[in-house]
Amino acid sequence: MIAGLYIAVLAIGYVIGSIPCGVMLGKIFAKTDITEVGSGKTGATNVLRAAGKKAAGLSLILDLAKGAGSVLLAGVIFNSDAAAGAGATPLMTASAQVLAAMAAVSGHSWSIFLKFKGGRGVATFIGSMLALYWPAGVVGGAIVVGVGLISRYMSLGSITGAVAAYITLIGMYIAKSYPAEYLIYTIYAMIGAIFIFFKHRDNITRLVSGKERRVGEKAGADKNPARLR
Asked: With 0-12 CB in 10 A as exposed, 13-18 as middle and 19+ as buried, what is 32?
């Protein structure tokens, strides 16, 4: 029974994460396939370039909601009477929420609706952190936006924001001696930060070489495999 619930939250999280919000908004606002523009990614940064601020704002909100919603649904499932009857514990609930979050980020990055293409998972990761432990999500999100706007490199903001969320959570865990389930959240935050760093490795190369695209730069159709962010 418990194994079936874990499978359910993984599947639900992946499907929710796979919903290509950015692609749909690009078609609605600009009649453009954003996977053929700029970086080809489906996150808010590329939506901004392809379809403007309103579409990007909606894309950001929806991608945050994918992460938060997956975590909250996992919590509902593992706090249900059926789960309680099967012996679900708070630690199991926490692990299910983390699995759902990881599945949502994976779905956003490798969407089943886009032949396993997608975005870099930053907003979905931050959304999941908001649902797991909101202070870490708030700090991480603020750093993403702040560093991104100040430097005009959203890739730099994304990387530093993910790391900041992890540092915030591990710092609060140590300072307040939280229960074991918060250690699971901390491990997830670490994995998420590593994942986002990995997904931005091409951006890091361009940042070092001074060739990274800045926020606000327009993007045209780009068939080049070495896409800019």
From this structure: buried
Q: Report yes or no: 114 and 42 within 8 Å, Cβ to Cβ.
A: yes
As a whole number of angstroms, the distance between CA 110 and CA 214 comes to: 25
| Distances from the Cα of 20 to the Cα of 16, 63, 205, angstroms | 9, 9, 27
The backbone torsions φ and ψ at residue 116, rounded to the nearest 5 degrees and listed phi first, read 65, 30
Map residue 117 onto helix, strand or coil.
strand
What CA–CA distance (Å, rounded) separates 132 from 97? 8
Half-sphere exposure of 168 (CA within 13 A, CB side): 22
Q: How many residues does the chain have?
A: 229
pTM of the model: 0.91
Among 93-102, 196-205, 208-217, name the one with the lowest average pLDDT: 208-217
Q: Is residue 110 within 8 Å of residue 199, measured between CB atoms? A: no
pLDDT digits (tens, 9 = 90+) for 147-163: 999 999 999 999 999 99
Map residue 86 onto helix, strand or coil. Answer: coil
Sheet strands (E) in 59-104: none
Identity (one letter) of the amino acid at 229? Answer: R
Alpha helices in 110-228 (DSSP H): 122-132, 134-151, 154-176, 180-199, 201-209
**Residue linked to tokens 């959203």:** 154
